[in-house]
Amino acid sequence: MRYKIALLPGDGIGQEVTRAAVQVMKTVAESFNVTLEFNEQLIGGSSYDKNQTPLTDETIQACYDSDAVFLGAVGGPKWEKLPHHLKPEAALLKLRKSLGLYANIRPAKIYDALIDSSTLKKEVLDGTDFIVMRELTGGIYFGEPRGFDDKRGFNTMVYSHEEVERIARMAFKFASERNKKVASVDKANVLEVSQFWRNIVHEVHKDYPDVQLTDMYVDNAAMQIVHNPRQFDVLLTSNLFGDILSDIAGMITGSLGMLPSASIGSKYALYEPVHGSAPDIAGKGKANPLAAISSAAMMFNYSFQMQKAAEIIEMAIERTLANGYRTADIFSEGCELVSTGQMTNYVTGYYTDIFNEQALGVFTL
Ligand code: NAD
User: Fold this and answer.
1) In contact, 173 and 236? CB cutoff 8 Å
2) What is the mean pLDDT of each run of 10 residues along the chain (365 residues)?
3) pTM, 2 dp
4) Is the CB of 9 under 6 A from ligand 1?
5) DSSP-derived secondary structure letter, 300
6) Atom of ligand 1 nearest to the CA of 278
């Protein structure tokens, strides 16, 4: 098999963590005997410096021509004073829109080795493994009319039937391949748009009778994520609610440097760590590459249907952490402080070990 990956490292640590992810991707490709073809393009501030725009047509075209897009991060103080449409972050919005990425997926999974560094108790967290599926291209962030004057400000939360149906369908599909539970989050007791959302989710549910559906008000969902996160499998939410809930869900399981994400549409998919370009540590070899590496695992899983590869990458991350290797952001007493490059070498080394162990039929974590 041959897969084309549009590689957009971006700015700051985006470049360092993308390098790390590519090292892992190449190791995976070799072990599974697939060919990965990388097309590297500029995005964000580094694109602005060369082309006076944070996103060129050439970069968008490379994404259109790809089987998957991998992005590092964009932004930094150097470009902060640019007008809004030229800022590095404007490239992200435009790219998501151009690729029609309507579903954002963020896993909330706890690595055993990091369970003690969470702000939640171990017994609450143990076994937590769910995804937040957030609608990304509709809702109040895009609804018209919008605006403000001296007397009032307003936005419009609007969803079309098609927008709700396609994200609901994706949530049920994912759940049917996981633990067969969808919790659909809304505010149907107050908002008509939420009642509309709920009706359509129930309609789509009829096609997935083996998946259990629960409706949950958004305020309760926020409480439940910190009270009993183990109960969730797929948490389906609209754009605004998902913005908030995915951050809560991410943080209960660890640091920003650990959080991967996928944004998926009907034709294209983009994988990126949740964190930004971290100008405070850029170029120092201090960046935690695990969010990016885990995003690569999602790419193998969702875009290339290489579930086994994704699983082994996650096991390699788990083993790296279990053996006490930590970048500064997740460092704790008794562990060994390592650089971005060293951490990546450990993950690729363990990946190869686990791959070989599985091939030989001997397996231990
Ligand atoms: P940030 O995520 O870049 O950094 C926040 C803090 O977390 C910093 O102290 C940073 O050092 C630390 N951190 C983040 N990722 C880390 C990693 N992998 N390893 C170790 N530590 C890590 O957020 P910010 O400082 O608010 O923003 C910096 C720039 O990034 C801004 O220009 C912002 O607009 C941009 N940004 C981009 C994206 C994106 O590209 N998707 C997302 C968020 C922020």
Assistant:
1) no
2) 97 98 98 97 98 98 98 97 94 93 94 87 93 95 95 97 98 97 98 98 98 98 96 97 93 86 97 96 97 98 96 97 95 95 98 92 56
3) 0.94
4) no
5) H
6) 3
Would you identify the CATH topology of the domain 118-253? Answer: Isopropylmalate Dehydrogenase (3.40.718)
**60 and 42 in contact (C-beta within 8 Å)?**
no
CA distance 51 to 47: 6
Does ligand 1 lie within 6 Å of residue 289's CB atom? no
Length of the chain measured in residues: 365
| Residue 114: closest CA among 301, 296, 256 | 256
89 touches ligand 1 (CB under 6 Å): yes
Q: Catalytic residue positions?
A: 141, 187, 219, 243, 247
181-197 confidence digits (pLDDT tens): 999 999 999 999 999 99
Segment 236-285, tens digit of pLDDT: 999 999 999 999 998 887 788 999 999 999 999 999 999 999 999 999 99
Calculate the alpha carbon distances from 107 to 117, 225, 308, 310, 348 in Å.
Answer: 18, 13, 17, 13, 22
- Dist. CA 244–CA 237, nearest whole Å: 10
Domain boundaries, the chain: 1-102+256-365, 118-253
Alpha-carbon dihedral sign for residues 322, 284, 44, 142:
positive
**Helix, strand and coil in the chain, % to nearest 5:** 50, 20, 30
Ligand 1 proximity of 343 Cβ (cutoff 6 Å):
no
> What CATH number belongs to 1-102+256-365?
3.40.718.10
Mutate to test the pocket of ligand 1, among 47, 251, 275 (most ligand atoms within 8 A of CB): 275
Chain centre distance of CA 57: 24
